[in-house]
């Protein structure tokens, strides 16, 4: 049982790393920027997209996602996740960004 849990964790870690690479390439930012506390709009947007996709497609909890992004508080992750969730319904560009990144993650 323990090795399976470890394999799952490694798979999730691999998916998160792949997602970060996809997002960094797509938005032309560094992984250091993505993990930083920068408030530049393009970096914040890329980071919150990651929160949303990690939660919905990879299934990590908010606390774990925060740990993966430089120790951010779980409430920060929840806020970013909800912001993207709401934006998807209102902004077709956000929806397209999420769909593109999810397709790349699944390929």
Structure description:
By secondary structure, the protein is mostly helical. It is 82% helix and 0% strand.
What about the largest sheet?
none
Strand content: under 5%
Share of helix, binned? over 70%
- Give the N-terminus to C-terminus distance in angstroms: 29 Å
Mean pLDDT: 92
- Overall 3D form: globular
Run of helices and strands: HHHHHH
Number of E-state strands? 0
Overall radius of gyration? 13 Å
* Broad structural category: mainly alpha
Unreliable runs? 1-7
Topology record:
Layout: H1 2-27, H2 31-35, H3 41-58, H4 62-68, H5 74-90, H6 92-106
Helix pairs in contact: 1-3, 1-6, 3-5, 4-5, 5-6
Features:
single chain, 6 helices, globular
Give a brief description.
With 107 residues, this protein is mainly alpha-helical. It has 6 helices and no strands.
């Amino acid at each position: 049982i323990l090795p399976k849990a470890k394999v799952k964790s490694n798979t999730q870690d691999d998916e998160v790393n792949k997602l970060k690479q996809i997002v960094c390439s797509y938005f032309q930012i560094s992984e250091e920027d993505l993990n930083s506390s920068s408030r530049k709009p393009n970096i914040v947007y890329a980071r919150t997209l990651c929160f949303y996709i990690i939660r919905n497609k990879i299934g990590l909890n908010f606390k774990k996602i925060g740990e993966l992004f430089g120790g951010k508080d779980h409430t920060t992750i929840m806020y970013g996740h909800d912001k993207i969730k709401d934006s998807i319904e209102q902004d077709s560009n956000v929806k397209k960004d999420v769909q593109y990144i999810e397709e790349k993650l699944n390929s």
